[in-house]
C-alpha cells in the first residue's frame, strides 16, 4: 500500500514540525488494527477495497524551518521523505512556470496494480476515484489552514513521469499548487529522481498500463461543499458499513438534499430517496421527481447485492456525458466533500464503486456514464 524510499534519506516525522501539518492532514493513517496477523491501516481517504492505488509527493519551498525539496508523503510510516533538496531548480521548470513558487506543489500518481490484482479491468475506475478523494483531501486540509489549492494541467505529463523516476507502474495523475510566486527564476533539474518501485511486485496488464499511461490528468476545478470541516472530522472519517432503520432528521435530509439537488457541471447527479421525509420516496434529478416509489430492493440489486445499503436514506448516483479519468477524479473529489460533510453533520456515508453499469443506466433511464455511487444514512451503532 505504501512506497518506500531508502531509509538513508532525510525525513520529517509527522508531528515534528507544525509547518508540515497542512501536508500531514492530506494523507494520514487514522486507524490501525490487526487482520489475519497483518496490520490493517485505514487512512483519512477512503479507497475501494482499502487498496490505495496512488502516491503523493510534495515540493516544499520557502517554508521557515523546513528544508526546501521534493518529498514523498509516506503516511504508512508517518514520515515525509526528502527525495531531493532544491535551490534554484524546482518542479516549476517542468510545469510551465518561469518563476519559483514559495509554498507547496503536490504531485499525485496512480499505482494501478495495487487495485488491478483484485479488480481487474474495473481497477482503472477505482484508481481515479481514489485519486479524486485524495485531491479532495488535499483541498480540505489546505482550506482548514487558510490556503487555497490551484490545479495545474498545462504541462508535459510524460516529462514529469520521467523526472519523478516513475517506471512502468506509476503515472502522474494530478498536480496542484498552494503558494505564492516569487520573482526569482527557476532552473531546470540536472538529473531525474531515483526510481523506486511503488509495490513490491507488479504484474500490471498491458491493458491497464496503456490506459493509465494515456489517461488525461486532472483538468478542471473540483466541486466544493461549504462545510466547516475541523481537524477532528478529517481524522474521524470512516465509511459506513451498516445503516440503521431509523431515518435521518429532517434537518440532516434537507442539508444533504441541498447539495445533491444543485447543478454540478460537469457531473450530473441522480438522487434516490429511500425513506419518506423531506421528499417522497423516489428517483430525482436535481429537484425533479422522475419516478415515485420504494426502490430499496432494486437499488440493493443494482449495487451488486450489497445489502447494507437497504437501510440507507439517500443514494446519489454521479454521472457524466463521457467517461474520462478527469471526470472520475471530479466524482471522487465531490464524493470526498460529501463524506466530510456527512461527518460534520453527524450522519454516515459510504462510497460505492461496485454496480451494474448498464442496469443502472436503464433504471435511471439515462445514457450518461455512471461514475460513482454514494449512500447516506444513520450509522448503525450496534452492528449485530
Ligand atoms: C472508489 C470507492 C469505491 C468503493 N466501493 C465500495 C463498495 O462497492 N462497497 C463498499 O462496501 N464499500 C466501498 N467503498 C468503501 C471502502 O470499502 C472503504 O473506503 C475502505 O474499506 C476503507 O475504509 P474507510 O473508508 O473507513 O477508511 C469504496 C470506496 C471508494 C473510495
Fold and architecture overview:
With 384 residues, the chain is α+β, with helices and mostly antiparallel strands. It folds into 2 domains: 11-214, NADH Oxidase; 240-377, NADH Oxidase, CATH 3.40.109.10. It has 10 helices and 15 strands. It has helices at 21-24, 113-119, 123-144, 157-164, 206-214, 231-236, 250-260, 296-302, 325-344, 357-364; strands at 11-13, 29-35, 38-43, 54-61, 69-74, 79-85, 99-110, 150-152, 171-185, 268-273, 282-285, 288-292, 314-320, 348-352, 369-377. The strands form 3 sheets. Strands 1-6-5-4-7-9-8 form a 7-stranded antiparallel beta sheet, sandwiched between helices. The longest helix has 22 residues, at 123-144. The two termini are 31 Å apart. The structure holds flavin mononucleotide.
What does this entry show, briefly?
It is built from 10 helices and 15 strands. The chain has 384 residues and is an alpha+beta fold.
CATH class of the largest domain: Alpha Beta
Number of domains: 2
- Under CATH, the homologous superfamily of the largest domain reads NADH Oxidase
Secondary structure: helix percent: 25-40%
Kindly name the structural category. alpha+beta
Mean of residue pLDDT values = 96
Could you describe the largest sheet, including whether it forms a barrel?
A: 7 strands, antiparallel
- pLDDT < 50 runs, ≥5 residues: none
Q: Using the 3D structure, state the CATH architecture of the largest domain.
A: 3-Layer(aba) Sandwich
| Distance between the amino and carboxyl termini | 31 Å
Q: State Rg.
A: 21 Å
For the biggest β-sheet, the strand order reads 1-6-5-4-7-9-8
Dominant shape: globular
Number of DSSP helical runs = 10
Amino acid at each position: 500500500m505504501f512506497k518506500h524510499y531508502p531509509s538513508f534519506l532525510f525525513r520529517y516525522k509527522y508531528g515534528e514540525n507544525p509547518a508540515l501539518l497542512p501536508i500531514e492532514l492530506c494523507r494520514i493513517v487514522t486507524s490501525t488494527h490487526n487482520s489475519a496477523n497483518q496490520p490493517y491501516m485505514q487512512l483519512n481517504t477512503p479507497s475501494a477495497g482499502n487498496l490505495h492505488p496512488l502516491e503523493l509527493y510534495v515540493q516544499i519551498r520557502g517554508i521557515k524551518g523546513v528544508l526546501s525539496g521534493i518529498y514523498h508523503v509516506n503516511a504508512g510510516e508517518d514520515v515525509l521523505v526528502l527525495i531531493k533538496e532544491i535551490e534554484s531548480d524546482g518542479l516549476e521548470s517542468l510545469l510551465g512556470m518561469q518563476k519559483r513558487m514559495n509554498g507547496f506543489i503536490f504531485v499525485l500518481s496512480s499505482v494501478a496494480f495495487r487495485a488491478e490484482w483484485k479488480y481487474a479491468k474495473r481497477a482503472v475506475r477505482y484508481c481515479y476515484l481514489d485519486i479524486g478523494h485524495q485531491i479532495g483531501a488535499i483541498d480540505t486540509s489546505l482550506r482548514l489552514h487558510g490556503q487555497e489549492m490551484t490545479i495545474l494541467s498545462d504541462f508535459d505529463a510524460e516529462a514529469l513521469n520521467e523526472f519523478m523516476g516513475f517506471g512502468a507502474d506509476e503515472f502522474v495523475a494530478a498536480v496542484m499548487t498552494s503558494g505564492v510566486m516569487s520573482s526569482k527564476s527557476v532552473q531546470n533539474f540536472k538529473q531525474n529522481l531515483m526510481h523506486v518501485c511503488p509495490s513490491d511486485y507488479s504484474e500490471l496488464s498491458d491493458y491497464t498500463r496503456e490506459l493509465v499511461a494515456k489517461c488525461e490528468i486532472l483538468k478542471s476545478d473540483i466541486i466544493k461543499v461549504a462545510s466547516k470541516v475541523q481537524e477532528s472530522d478529517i481524522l474521524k472519517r470512516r465509511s459506513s458499513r451498516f445503516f440503521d432503520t431509523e431515518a435521518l432528521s429532517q434537518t440532516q435530509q434537507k442539508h444533504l438534499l441541498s447539495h445533491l439537488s444543485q447543478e454540478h457541471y460537469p457531473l450530473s447527479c441522480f438522487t434516490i430517496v429511500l425513506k419518506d421525509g423531506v421528499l417522497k420516496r423516489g428517483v430525482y434529478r436535481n429537484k425533479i421527481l422522475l419516478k415515485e416509489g420504494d426502490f430499496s430492493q432494486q437499488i440493493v440489486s443494482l449495487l451488486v447485492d450489497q445489502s447494507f445499503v437497504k437501510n440507507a436514506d439517500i443514494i446519489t448516483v454521479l454521472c457524466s456525458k463521457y467517461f474520462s479519468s478527469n471526470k472520475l477524479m471530479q466524482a471522487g473529489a465531490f464524493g470526498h466533500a460529501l463524506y466530510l460533510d456527512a461527518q460534520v453533520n453527524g450522519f454516515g456515508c459510504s462510497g460505492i464503486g461496485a454496480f451494474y453499469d448498464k442496469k443502472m443506466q436503464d433504471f435511471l433511464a439515462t445514457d450518461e456514464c455512471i461514475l460513482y455511487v454514494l449512500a447516506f444514512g444513520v450509522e448503525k451503532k450496534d452492528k449485530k
